[in-house]
């Protein structure tokens, strides 16, 4: 089955498709390679400072060849953001199947996010710095996928809240967690900092410790007096 990003590229091409191949093979690898190079250019120069010629050179393609598959640099930015979120969500959904324990599932969410972030620092920077760049239907689609990701995290915290009988704001907890894990690309140094798995354990301890402690305290304080 072809990836959603590959399907998007095929729909936007000028009518011709690459030679027939098995799904998820050379075309998808080529797409991932182009998006990786485009993310590096957007990361270095910013969206406004990058040109299609810069992007074609980075990808090792002619300008005409790049335009054959991508109508504009906006489409490339859209595909980077779409591909990134869909990849993170697909990996997360698969990994969540391994556990039904609410705390473990939140730890899975954290580790999945950190693993992708550390392996794709340039793409994560582009997601953050070009958050409001996309307009019209491209921007609307990416925002919808981001809402799906937010909702997954919110639902995981709701599972924990109900299982433990806690009281806390789900919105505050979700946004606090994203504040903790989203900026790792700005400070992580592989020479001195731990890998994604160890960082996820530490961040999970800090986050869950705070949520469980605050949730229990709030529940105790709100309990009716005898």
Which descriptors would you attach to this protein?
mainly alpha; single chain; 226 residues; disordered N terminus; Tetracycline Repressor, domain 2
Summarize the structure.
This protein is mostly helical.
Write the layout of secondary structure elements.
Blueprint: H1 4-12, H2 26-49, H3 52-59, H4 63-69, H5 73-96, H6 102-119, H7 121-129, H8 136-164, H9 170-181, H10 184-187, H11 196-222
Describe this structure in words.
The chain is mainly α and 226 residues long. The chain has helices spanning 4-12, 26-49, 52-59, 63-69, 73-96, 102-119, 121-129, 136-164, 170-181, 184-187, 196-222. It has a single domain, classed as Tetracycline Repressor, domain 2. 27% of the residues are buried. Helix 2 (26-49) packs across helix 5 (73-96) and helix 6 packs antiparallel against helix 11 (196-222). The protein is elongated, with a radius of gyration of 20 Å. It starts with a helix and ends with a helix. It has eleven helices and no strands.
């Amino acid at each position: 089955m072809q990836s959603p990003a590959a399907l998007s590229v095929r729909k936007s091409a000028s009518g011709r498709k690459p030679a027939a191949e098995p799904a998820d093979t050379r075309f998808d690898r080529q797409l991932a390679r182009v998006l990786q190079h485009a993310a590096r250019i957007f990361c270095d120069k910013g969206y406004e400072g990058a040109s299609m010629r810069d992007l074609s050179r980075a990808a090792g393609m002619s300008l005409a060849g790049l335009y054959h598959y991508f109508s504009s640099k906006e489409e490339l930015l859209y595909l980077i953001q779409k591909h990134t979120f869909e990849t993170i969500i697909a990996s997360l959904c698969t990994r969540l199947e391994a556990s039904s324990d609410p705390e473990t599932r939140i730890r899975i969410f954290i580790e999945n996010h950190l693993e992708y972030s550390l392996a794709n620092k340039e793409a994560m920077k582009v997601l953050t710095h070009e958050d409001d760049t996309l307009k019209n239907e491209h921007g609307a689609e990416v925002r919808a996928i981001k809402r799906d990701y937010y909702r997954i995290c919110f639902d995981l915290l709701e599972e924990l809240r109900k299982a433990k009988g806690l009281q806390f704001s789900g919105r505050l907890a979700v946004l606090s967690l994203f504040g903790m894990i989203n900026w790792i690309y700005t400070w992580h140094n592989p020479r001195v900092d731990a890998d994604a798995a160890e960082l996820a354990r530490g961040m999970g301890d800090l986050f869950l410790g705070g949520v469980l402690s605050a949730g229990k305290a709030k529940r105790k304080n709100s309990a009716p007096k005898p």
